[in-house]
Structure formats: structure tokens, C-alpha cells
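Q: Sequence in, structure out?
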Amino acid sequence: VLAMLSRVEPGNKYPQCLCLSPTYELALQTGKVIEQMGKFYPELKLAYAVRGNKLERGQKISEQIVIGTPGTVLDWCSKLKFIDPKKIRVFVLDEADVMIATQGHQDQSIRIQRMLPKDCQMLLFSATFEDSVWKFAQKVVPDPNIIKLKREEETLDTIKQYYVLCNNRDEKFQALCNIYGAITIAQAMIFCHTRKTAGWLAAELSKEGHQVALLSGEMMVEQRAAVIERFREGKEKVLVTTNVCARGIDVEQVSVVINFDLPVDKDGNPDNETYLHRIGRTGRFGKRGLAINMVDSKHSMNILNRIQEHFNKKINKLDTDDLDEIEKITN
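A: Exactly. Output:
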């Protein structure tokens, strides 16, 4: 954000900085940061290139910073010509690993980058740099300066991790109720593998008297943004979600993350990066966090063991029938 703000010429009323985000929610969150940091810069204006933001054909944008999702930004640059890509001075690609994992996003990002001037500054950010990210970076960022954090500087050091052994979905729900009965939780995020499980769990928690928000991929982007905003404001204390919310959503009051289902990839192997992103929703802003994993089969125990090995961090067993033991984990 600082790089974009420092390169903008506010007197020039056309887009000079482009920032791509993989989702509508992340685009809005980054936009809010730009608005906060740029509030002493009254001439600075920001436009959102996201689905649903309709402009008249032939219109030119006067805002200096445009933040949006790849498909809409590409349309604004090429088909609709709202943006002159040759005038862009800074191009930012956020959550690059997600962009690369999503084939459409990857292609669109490269097509946008090819329209930009040769002297345009490229900034590429990713919390997890796998080989695929490096290969992609070499395509879009010539002769880069690289800033890397060590693995051990990742979020895991501030998060206590536990697992609970269960036999089925109902036992997992009972374990969850026991945890809520024993410790005070400011706000929690609970991750499920499918929309169906997320819907069932949200309904069951509501019956128990919890203020619950439900977030899943089939919701309209505006609905999703409204759910996140309510959760951020503390109107709901529990957010039940599928992977759509594993990345980048920062809510300061989240003290506990629960993996009702462990994250796996399409082949059923542990999805270590998603695990890191999920539990990284807690232990933020210098606070300590708590991550609890529900294990309900030999297969999910195997997934958990492989996640432990990958991060070289022990995940301790928690007996949720023992209220004293649950109370101790918050000390």
C-alpha cells in the first residue's frame, strides 16, 4: 500500500496503480487499508474493479488507484477500455499463490501484466512461496528484489495447537459445545470441508444459543462482504465457513480457530498451506491464539500426523470431556 501511495501523482486524474486480489473480500479489505493510510491525501481516489461494479461503456476512470479481481480488471483494461494500462506505474499482485492455483486468475494476471509499460514497478506478495509461485514470479517480475521470511517466523509460534479424537460428526459437535462451556472465546472461526456440513453446524450452534454467521462460496459477493463486516463488528461471535475465508481476512478479536474438518486437497492429501492460512486467522496483532483440530477417523489422524511433520510442530491431544483440561489450554 505504501509503495502505491508513494508513486501516485494526485494531480493526474487517471489510474496509476493497479492491485489484483483473488477475491472480492480481500479487495475490499485492502481498499480499506488504502483509505485509512491515504486519508491525509484528500485528492487521492480509489476505484474497485469487482463484479457488480457497473460503469458506462466508454467512460474513463479518474481514480488514481484501482483494486480488483483479475477478470474484472482485465475487462476494464482491454474490452471496456476504462483504464489505460500504459499509464500504470505500480502493479501489485496479492496472494500470488492463490492466483497461480486458480488457472483463470493466472492467465488473466499475465495478460494484464503484458499490457503494462516496461518501467512499471511490479510487487508480488504471497504468504507461502512454493515452486509454482517462483516460476510464475520469474515470468512476471524481471530481475526481482526478493524479501523472504524464515519458515520459523511464520504464525505458528504464537498459536497453541490441539486435536480432539471423535468418532463421528455428532461427537465433534459435542466436543465443540464442551469447549465453549469451559473457556471464554471472544470470537471464533470454524472451518468445514463442505457447504452442507457448514450449514448443518451453523444451524446446530444457533440452536445452542450462539450468535452464528455462515459464509460459503455460493453466496453472492455482496452477501459475503456483509457477513464478514457483521463478524468484524462483533455482531456475531462465531463464523462458520468453508475455505472461502481461509485467507487474508483479519478480525482482531478471533481468539480460536477450529478445524471441524481438516484441510485436504482434491486428492485427499493434507493441504498444509491452507492449514497455515486457516489457523493464521488467530494469533495475530501480537496476541496468542488457539487452534483446535477435530479428528474423526484413521484417515484424518493420518492427515494430522502429516501436517505435524510438515511444520515440525507438535499438536497435543485434548480431552474435551475433562473441563479442567480444557481450562488449562488458555493459560
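The two ends are 37 Å apart (CA to CA).
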